[in-house]
Amino acid sequence: MQSFEDIAIMGTSHLTANFIILLVLLSSAHLEAVYANEAGSYYDSFATTKCVSLPLASSYGGGIIVNPEFDNGMDGWSAFGGSKLEIRSDEGGNKYIAATERKNSCDSASQNLNLTQDLMYTLAAWVQISGENSSAAIVKATVAMKDPNTGSTTYNCAGTAIAQSGCWTQLKGGLTADFSSSATIYFESTDVGVEIFLDSVSLQPFTKEEWRSHQQASIEKNRKGNVTVHVVDSEGNPVKGAKIMINQIKREFPFGSAIAKTILANDTYQKWFVERFNVATFENELKWYSTENQQGYLNYKDADALVEFCNSNNISMRGHNIFWEDPKYTPQWVKDLPDTQQLQSAVESRIRSLVGRYKGQFLNWDVSNEMLHFSFFENKLGPNASLEFFKLAQELDPTTPMFMNDYNTIETCNDIMAIPDEYLRKLQDISSLGVMTGIGLESHFGKANIPLMRSILDRLGSIGLPIWLTEVDIQNSLGGDKQAEYLEEVLREGYSHQFVNGIVMWSALHPYGCYQMCLTDNNFNNLATGNVVDKLIEEWNNESIEGITDENGEFKFFGFRAYYKAIVMHLELSNSTTFKVTRVSTTTYQPQQIYIVI
């Protein structure tokens, strides 16, 4: 049975030293804290979903936050709205601020700041609530900024957490300043009956160049590996001076796009797709309204043809989707079924037919699409209906992970139905049934809040389950150039993040265009978004590597985790082999050893 990893936080409430030390005891007994670049700027990637007895020290010494741990009383802090503030101490002497007598959602502790245009700010804080009628409440960090050009105030959600009574929860988020301005950060909750406790607050600015350097450092650490190729003769003796040519033949990291039946009869489309991608999601062809538009009349023709296309071109596939909780996309005949018994029979037949037909052929399944926002089947069949879908699908396809798939978890923090804590709470219910679960994040962005995206990925990834960005696009109302700019930001952040296991863009091409974002026109000439994709594919691949073995018969290289073919030549002899570069160890990063006999 798959369970969430227990995390024990070690140490005192506030660690005061030249460097912040985060001690995290995991079952794998490893220590992971920061991404650092060569210049010394670091990003604190630590995150936890656990509610702990004492908050950790503020990251970055608080960054631009004054008095982040309240050791100097109320210095730097003031009441926002009508709340009253007081400094309290727990039994161990740890100080924190409490916002009491709250009558409006925004009544809380606040601090005035000055933010600089285009800087990227990462936020962290520890929150707790206390209330007679509430054991938990959503706390949202809001940054109010006054636009110097218009004089209007914008209110930016910078992070959320479900704070609990009696223990401390980490709130992690961030924002990018669109203009230089005075600003106010405050922590609000719509549950006005609770007091909000706050401690260890930090808001750390980074330039875009520093942010990119963190991404590159993570790519070097998590997407590449050291390899030592040993060339030996038939008796095992090292061969000095052998010429080696190494070519990457396939990426390991799944990167792809949605496709539709429009690709099946279009050789140009097929060639364009296969040259770029190694994973696909069928846009609509597996959905219930496509495979059984009329009750009892099953039609897998298009889905089968897409499976055959992908298999013949070595393209992996995601299974999207078994059910869609939005009633708008549920077949009309299903909605017209007269009683619960017939609906239950229909959904069980659907799972057995679809999952049974494609068992073992997909990397993962989206079982009950968008279940955080919609609940058609649960409304009809009871509150645990979707959980039973996951359980049955896993029984039928026991080696394939069963994913949740939803939107607005990393795109924004204003959608309280999809905040990370709500996502994880639902996921834990599924995981408790013994289902091998995964995290699907649709990633339908407007202008992306990249610091928020990274922080949420940190939190979601802390539980150790696979994460995919499943339907990446940028809304078309922004125009082609902005679509391309924001797409590059999202793809770079996703690919560089240590916990992201795959990326699929939602860009299936039709005669009318695409859902929101196309990569090419109908003649397969790249649009600006397609140019971004091609640029990144080239950047995330190794060029041909050539070299000569040293006196020990060794040739060393550092390459992307991928599949390679090596050709070795020496005198009149030659040999070749294929191998996969992977991470040998997550702690020591020892080189992978490849042996070639010549």
Describe the overall structure.
- The protein is α/β, with parallel strands linked by helices and 598 residues long.
- The protein has 3 domains: 8-215, Sandwich (Jelly Rolls); 225-248 and 543-597, Immunoglobulin-like (Sandwich), CATH 2.60.40; 254-539, Glycosidases (TIM Barrel, Alpha-Beta Barrel), CATH 3.20.20.80.
- Helix content is 22%, strand content 33%.
- The chain contains 12 helices and 30 strands.
- The strands form 7 sheets. It has an 8-stranded parallel barrel with strand order 17-18-19-20-21-22-24-25, surrounded by 6 helices.
- Helix 1 packs across helix 11 (480-496).
- The longest helix has 18 residues, at 340-357.
- The radius of gyration is 26 Å and the shape is globular.
- The two termini are 47 Å apart.
Tell me, what's the shape? Answer: globular
Low-pLDDT regions: 1-33
Number of helices: 12
Query: What is the number of strand segments?
Result: 30
Instruction: Give the mean pLDDT.
Output: 92
CATH superfamily of the largest domain: Glycosidases
The N- to C-terminal Cα distance equals 47 Å
CATH class of the largest domain: Alpha Beta
Strand content: 25-35%
Rg, Å, rounded: 26 Å
Helix content: 10-25%
Total domain count? 3
**Structural class assignment:** alpha/beta
For the largest sheet, list the strands in their spatial order.
17-18-19-20-21-22-24-25
Main sheet attributes: strand count, strand direction, barrel closure: 8 strands, parallel, barrel
Q: What is the name of the CATH architecture of the largest domain? A: Alpha-Beta Barrel
CATH topology of the largest domain: TIM Barrel
